[in-house]
Recover the amino acids of this structure.
């Protein structure tokens, strides 16, 4: 019955609208919507992969140019070209895991005033944000780090880790990098309680961490005085030290020392962020009247 | 003339609201300078003149000179660009573009002049200082024509950068969503801040003809070097800026014609 009645109907419709044009507009819209839905979530990761690829590429070319006039196995400040390419590539892959947006999140919460709602809840604000960041890192591990690693390892001549043991220590150290950077970001985000805009502070922190963590170039490239300064700061434990483990520049029996140093910095920064947090809450109370 | 004074008022209005929080502005300015200097730090640390004497034959001063050049164009672009990044969200999805369309002024100019990133002046100063500092150690002498070229090519570079992001922003008219390709393209700018010959042929081609960021700093800077082989591309910089501006204007006009309001 139904079939019989649709027959003449569609003929009538076809009289008014060209069926091919209609199909085009209907399915075109379906395809377009499906495409846009994909874009809404996936494209962010897709473009993220390209962004990381561009970072690694530009540094790959720079390091190749640095070693251009040298013999193939020359070392500069203790690194050969293959080691440097590995250093940069693995450094960025590890960064895709350990970075977090805690500073950005706190800034948003303070701007929107939602932070007061968080304060009323019987949860630890600090733990909540770190846990949230950890969840995001787990998500990125699957949908971001894996494809990035695939593309980078395929395009660039990256060396394998020095040994399985070194790789295991490197992974453990990267977990610590996440925890240490989370504290740095937490403290940076708390600046939002005092300043009207912390965009500049966040950007400055971003670049300082990039340089001082050794992500852009190993500490052995720094002049003596700056090496001394960096030795006294926590940032080198975020990127430089884990990469030294990967490359086997740290002997296996000294690996626990690296993790212990990270642990110490984590505890120290954790105490500092607790202290800053207590003061921040007080400022907020004052503003709230 | 009247139009210009209206844009002047746009700027003044923004300036006043920004300076309402003076200390906040100064903090941002200082942060901007720190960011600019830390970008420089990488080159200064890498090409230390001893362990690493040059980048494939390009000396530290030359690399820094090109980097300083890029800061001038980037500062111009960064000052104008904040609305381009959030164009999709702020104007198309929120429907603020309705308001822009109601006014008898050029739509693109309105969008660009409604918000500025004044902190970028910091990197402009660092860039100019860097050019003259490294220029002096390279033994350069600047004549009137050189200053003119610096001005023309600096503005051209700013136009190229702005045009590329206007083109990306105009995609928001069709997709009603940030495509998210702004970030990768922004990072592509970094390639234009180093001597082009250090990159392989594919990258060089892209930087010349697809996303012409090689014209932002490298090509125009070669005017000041005694290195032959780049003359054509160097003096083609204003031409490339004109082409980019034309393409961006066409894409924008076409996008505006396709704009459908949110209806709210």
């Amino acid at each position: 019955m139904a079939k019989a009645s649709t027959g003449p109907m569609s003929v009538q419709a076809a009289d008014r609208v060209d069926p091919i044009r209609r199909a085009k507009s209907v399915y075109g819209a379906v395809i377009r919507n499906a495409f846009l839905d994909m874009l809404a979530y996936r494209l962010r990761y897709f473009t993220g992969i390209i962004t990381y690829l561009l970072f690694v590429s530009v540094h790959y070319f720079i390091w190749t140019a640095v070693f251009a006039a040298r013999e193939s196995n020359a070392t500069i400040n203790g690194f050969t070209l293959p080691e440097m390419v590995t250093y940069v590539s693995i450094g960025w892959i590890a960064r895709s895991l350990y970075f977090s947006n805690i500073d950005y999140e706190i800034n948003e919460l303070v701007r929107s005033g939602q932070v007061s709602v968080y304060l009323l809840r019987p949860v630890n604000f600090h733990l909540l944000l770190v846990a949230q960041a950890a969840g995001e890192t787990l998500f990125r591990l699957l949908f971001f780090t894996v494809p990035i690693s695939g593309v980078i390892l395929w395009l660039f001549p990256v060396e394998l880790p020095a040994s399985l043991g070194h790789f295991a220590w490197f992974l453990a150290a990267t977990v610590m990098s996440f925890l240490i950077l989370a504290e740095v970001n937490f403290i940076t985000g708390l600046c939002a309680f005092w300043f009207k805009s912390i965009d500049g502070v966040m950007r400055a922190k971003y670049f300082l961490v990039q340089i001082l963590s050794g992500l852009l170039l190993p500490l052995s490239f720094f002049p003596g005085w700056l090496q001394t300064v960096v030795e006294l700061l926590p940032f080198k434990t975020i990127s430089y030290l884990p990469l030294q483990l990967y490359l086997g520049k740290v002997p296996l029996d000294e690996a626990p020392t690296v993790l212990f140093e990270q642990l110490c910095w984590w505890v120290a920064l954790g105490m500092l962020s607790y202290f800053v947090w207590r003061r921040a809450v007080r400022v907020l109370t004052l503003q709230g009247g | 003339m009247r139009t210009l004074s209206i844009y002047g008022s746009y700027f003044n209005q923004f300036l006043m609201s920004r300076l309402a929080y003076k200390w906040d502005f100064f903090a941002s300015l200082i942060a901007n300078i720190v960011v600019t200097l830390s970008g420089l730090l990488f080159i200064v640390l890498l090409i230390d003149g001893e362990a690493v004497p040059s980048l494939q034959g390009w000396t530290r001063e030359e690399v820094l000179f090109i980097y300083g050049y890029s800061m001038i164009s980037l500062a111009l672009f960064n000052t104008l660009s904040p609305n381009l990044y959030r164009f999709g969200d702020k104007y198309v999805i929120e429907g603020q573009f309705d308001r822009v369309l109601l006014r008898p002024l050029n739509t693109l100019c309105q969008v660009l002049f409604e918000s500025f990133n004044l902190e970028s002046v910091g990197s402009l100063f660092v860039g100019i200082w860097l050019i003259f500092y490294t220029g002096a150690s390279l033994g350069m002498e600047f004549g009137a024509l050189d200053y003119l070229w610096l001005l023309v090519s600096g503005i051209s570079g700013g136009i190229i950068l702005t045009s590329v992001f206007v083109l990306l922003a105009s995609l928001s008219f069709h997709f009603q969503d940030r495509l998210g390709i702004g970030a990768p393209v922004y990072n592509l700018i970094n390639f234009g801040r180093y001597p082009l010959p250090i990159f392989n042929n594919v990258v060089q081609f892209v930087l010349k003809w697809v996303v012409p960021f090689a014209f932002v700093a490298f090509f125009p800077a070669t005017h000041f070097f005694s290195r032959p082989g780049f003359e054509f591309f160097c003096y083609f910089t204003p031409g490339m800026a004109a082409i980019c501006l034309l393409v961006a204007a066409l894409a924008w006009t076409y996008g505006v014609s396709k704009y459908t309001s949110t209806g709210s």
Notes: The longest helix of chain A spans residues 19-66. Confidence is low (pLDDT under 50) at residues 1-14 of chain A. Residues 46-288 of chain A form one domain.
